[in-house]
Amino acid sequence: MDISSALQDWYAIHNRDLPWRKTDSPYLIWISEVILQQTRVVQGTDYYLRFTERFPGVEDLAAAPADEVMLFWQGLGYYSRAVNMHETAKYIVRELNGVFPTTYAGLLGLKGVGKYTAAAVASIAYREPVAVVDGNVLRVIARLEGIELPVDSAAGRNACERIAQVLISRKRPDIHNQAVMELGALVCLPRKPLCHKCPLAASCVALKNGKADILPVKRPKKKSRIRYFHYFFITVDEHTWIRKRSGRDIWHTLFEFPMIETDAPVELQDMVSTPEWSTLFPNHPVGVGVSGTCHYKHLLTHQTLNASFYHVDGVGRIESIPGYIRVKLTDLDNYALPRLLVRFLEDIRE
Ligand code: SF4
Asked: How many CB atoms lie within 10 A of CB 5?
């Protein structure tokens, strides 16, 4: 039996019942694939169901305010993906009469749609035989074919992509692609692959050579960038201040409290003499009434954030903060916030 047939037979018995597998709508497949690039299936299912209940079609997403889209994305990370998704939905409605491109090449032309997403939508919605290659697929292919190049290098990735394209079923690329990803998620696990349950065991080079636990190889990890964020959670008459983040940095378009970033750990009194402090609190250069401080270490893919939150009772001292908007504390949940700020708010509300 060839590899694709073995995969498809295995998938017919073992596939998980997931909501996006019951549709051939390119819109719903697109949403599910973008969400699944951010998170695991269990958490992703909740996001998918909430997102598609609120935005069931591309027109609904296109018509929604940007801030509301971000609210439904909150916690998934890589917020530029949500911004691009919203822009692309608007483009499809405005320029393409709400109809998705029906080919891999056409899908690749959409903003924010890369090779992985274009291949997933083209193969699952339109049965175009183009292989998807995500982390699960890279792992399965590298082991199956015994590829020893780092899979996160251009050469290693290209080798896996070429093989994935050779292996794909011409008849049922939709099932084939989902089957490889499912095998990577359920059997060919990152650590301790379950080779005794694998439908490809007889053909697997890594298993034959005793390298199933060793492959795939990856390049040494990049050093994490260490950052120090100091947030001021200012409350006056049941209100606080926030602003939308802008610029090319993490959490683009999410909201945050007034903050100062420093290159090293500093105490509150050391910040009082900085220009950033004067900008935030122009009328209160020597301090504001800090009633509590919380510290968090927050890990992102290539960054470690050391965050301090200063709870400031600003009654009688703070009326406005340049560049920030005043919002009711009870309305904070209506703004898309980084997970770090949500953690802080959950802790102080306990
Ligand atoms: Fe992965 Fe083991 Fe199957 Fe090879 S035999 S593809 S290592 S699960």
From this structure: 13
What separation, in Å, do the N-terminal and C-terminal C-alpha atoms of the chain show? Answer: 58
What CATH number does domain 225-349 carry, 1.10.287.770, 3.40.50.2300, 3.10.180.10, 3.90.79.10?
3.90.79.10
Q: Which two three-digit tokens encode residue 184?
A: 């990577």
Tell me the per-residue pLDDT of 154-180, one tens digit each, with 9 for 90 and over.
999 999 999 999 999 999 999 999 999
Cβ contacts of 48 within 8 Å, gap of 6 or more: 19, 20, 31, 32, 35
- Tens digits of residue pLDDT in 327-348: 999 999 999 999 999 999 988 8
Ligand 1 residue neighbourhood (C-beta within 6 Å): 140, 143-144, 187-188, 193, 195, 198, 200-201, 204, 206-207, 212
CA–CA separation, 242 vs 338, rounded Å?
12
Q: Are the C-beta atoms of 37 and 134 separated by less than 8 Å?
A: yes
**Residue 339 Cα to ligand 1 middle (Å):** 36
Q: Is 72 helix (H, G, I), strand (E, B) or coil?
A: helix
Residue type (1 letter), 241: W
CATH topology for 3-208 is Endonuclease III; domain 1 (1.10.340)
Q: Judge whether 119 and 134 are in contact, CB under 8 Å.
A: no
Q: How many other CB atoms are found less than 10 A from the CB of residue 61?
A: 25
Q: What would the two tokens of residue 66 be?
A: 């940007």
Tokens 């998980």 appear where? 16
CB 122 within 8 A of CB 128: yes
Peptide bond into 322 cis (omega under 30): no
The protein residue whose alpha carbon is closest to atom 5 in ligand 1 is 201
Nearest Cα residue to 27 out of 83, 101, 79 = 101
Residue nearest atom 2 in ligand 1 by C-alpha distance: 195
Distance separating alpha carbons of residues 314 and 213, to the nearest angstrom: 57
User: What integer best gives the mean pLDDT of the chain?
Assistant: 92
| Domain range summary for the chain, segments of one domain joined by + | 3-208, 225-349
Is 256 one of the catalytic residues?
A: no
Report yes or no: 288 and 314 within 8 Å, Cβ to Cβ: yes
